[in-house]
Specification:
With about 60 residues, this protein is mainly alpha-helical.
């Protein structure tokens, strides 16, 4: 993987992350408030699930 591919992937993440607040700001706010109320362990679990899902997707596509 070269630097261009990495920057392309980061740009795609930013686009996907920005879709919900752009299209559904009220729903995004509710989700964000619920996330703030989670305990650290719960946040870490969701972060771990996201990392694992991303790794599986990358391996599957390669």
């Amino acid at each position: 993987m070269d630097a261009d591919t990495l920057w392309l992937a980061i740009g795609l993440v930013l686009v996907v992350e920005g879709l919900m607040p752009l299209l559904w700001p009220a729903a995004w706010r509710r989700v964000f408030i619920q996330m703030v109320r989670l305990q650290e362990g719960q946040l870490r679990f969701f972060g771990l699930c996201s990392v694992l899902a991303g790794c599986v997707l990358i391996l599957w596509l390669n």
